[in-house]
Specification:
The structure holds 2 protein chains of 2 kinds. Chain A has 12 helices and no strands. By secondary structure, chain A is mainly alpha-helical. The model of chain A has no long low-confidence stretch (mean pLDDT about 75). Classes of the chains: A mainly alpha, B mainly alpha.
């Protein structure tokens, strides 16, 4: 329903807000389907970061959508046909929670049965993410890094004299400032907890990076333009983003040099399980640093653009 | 329709996917197109997580007394996909911002009209130059 409302409204501000609500609802659904790690990420990313980014680009463009000038009939037809084909196909899909579904047949039993002993951590999602599927995750981290680069190339970080730390666009909101002052250390602490406790409970580098970045975004929004830059200058972030990817790649190269396969963490210590644990910890740290700096860089790029015009 | 509860999630996925698809192809506003893309993306996420669910299973964090877990693999894929999704959305938004700076509009129709006008102006200029050479 929210999705439908988001399509029909022409006030883009409302559309973006509804999109945030939609993300939060999706997170609740994931929670319901036993995907705690995913729900975590969706709540932090979809409802938080995406909304802020969309709002800041609305600020840079226009709030109102032009009246539609073309007839939606053809599009409706295409969508209808595709939808009908998909509904037809869905009838062959395995039922929800069916143990004989292909997903539960192939590699999953091995991950579930061996994951805890081989990698030495209870959170199977982290084990699969960082160890079994380490190559994929390395690829994803590089993609995020590249996306950050692309935004830098497109927008750049503008350092303009009109930027005045301490003067916020929303004015001097005493209540907001006090609340954020109390919340900030808690958010940062929670980010660290999520980063280093990801082996045991829900969480990991991706979520921690986003939560950390959210803390700084919040600080910047409430305490005035550019105040986060005084704490974490963009120049550092450039290096941090590269450092995160380097840590990940470096662990891989180290295990190569130690005579094992790329990203085979067993090479990191005499005891394979211990090595796995160390490797996962390092790799997650790299992911966390990379994600944090890229997300914050992207925010700086959008926010800086708005104040220099 | 006794199988309906089993595939209900898939039907939702199809609905959301089509909603997003419609926005992407039918709406002219570039920001809204990106929102549509986000809807589409989220529907794929729900599809994967639905497939990974196991009835009677728990969240895939090993605990005592639990024998059945949801498959961790789809969770991993979607977790990374969400973060990559926000990064790529940011690239899209950055492009939109630059387009707005160049054209003064984020409506697809306006941008096309402007492009056509520019092309015509270029052609006219070329023709005028040729005439000038002929004389």
């Amino acid at each position: 329903m929210i999705a439908v409302a988001a399509i029909l409204l022409s006030d883009l501000f409302a559309v973006v807000m509804l999109f945030g609500v939609y993300s939060l609802l999706t997170a609740v659904l994931f929670m319901n389907l036993d995907a705690v790690d995913v729900a975590f990420t969706e709540a932090a990313v979809g409802a938080g970061v995406t909304t802020v980014l969309m709002l800041s680009s609305l600020h840079l463009t226009k709030r109102w959508e032009a009246l539609p000038r073309r007839k939606p009939l053809i599009s409706l037809l295409v969508v209808g046909i595709t939808g009908a084909a998909l509904v037809y196909a869905v009838q062959d899909a395995p039922l929800l929670g069916d143990p004989s579904a292909p997903v539960h047949q192939h590699v999953t039993p091995r991950y579930v049965e061996q994951g805890a002993t081989e990698v030495g951590m209870p959170n199977l999602v982290t084990a699969v993410l960082a160890s079994y599927r380490g190559y994929d995750t390395f690829g994803e981290t590089v993609v995020i890094f590249t996306a950050g680069l692309a935004v830098m190339l497109l927008l750049g970080i503008q350092d303009c004299s009109r930027m005045r730390p301490g003067v916020s666009a929303i004015g001097d909101q005493v209540v907001l400032r006090s609340v954020v002052k109390v919340l900030l250390p808690l958010i940062l602490l929670f980010g660290l907890y999520v980063q280093f406790h990801g082996d045991f409970g829900a969480g990991g580098g991706f979520q921690a990076g986003v939560i950390f970045a959210t803390a700084f975004v919040l600080y910047d929004l409430v305490f005035g333009d550019g105040s986060a830059r005084a704490v974490v200058p963009p120049g550092w972030l450039h290096r941090l983003a590269a450092l995160g990817v380097l840590i990940y790649g470096g662990v891989g190269v180290y295990s190569l040099l130690a005579g094992r396969a790329f990203l085979d963490y067993s090479a990191l210590a005499a005891d394979p399980v211990h090595g796995q644990h160390l490797g996962v910890l390092l790799v997650e740290l790299g992911v966390g640093i990379a994600v944090f700096s890229v997300v914050l860089l992207i925010f700086y790029a959008f926010a800086g653009r708005g104040h220099c015009r | 329709m006794s199988f309906l509860p089993g595939i209900f999630n898939y039907l939702i996925v199809v609905f959301l996917m089509m909603a997003g698809f419609y926005v992407v192809i039918a709406q002219g506003n570039l920001v809204k197109k990106l929102v549509g893309l986000g809807l589409f993306q989220a529907s794929v996420f729900i599809l994967y997580i639905t497939m990974g669910n196991l009835s009677g299973g728990q969240a895939p964090i090993v605990a005592e007394g639990v024998t059945a877990y949801s498959s961790p693999l789809p969770h991993v894929l979607i977790l990374t996909a969400i973060v990559v999704g926000v990064a790529t959305t940011a690239v899209g938004l950055a492009l939109v911002v630059r387009i707005h700076e160049a054209y003064g509009s984020v409506e697809e129709d306006d941008i096309h009209a402007k492009d056509l006008k520019d092309d015509e102006a270029l052609l006219d200029a070329g023709a005028a130059r040729k005439e000038g050479n002929g004389e």
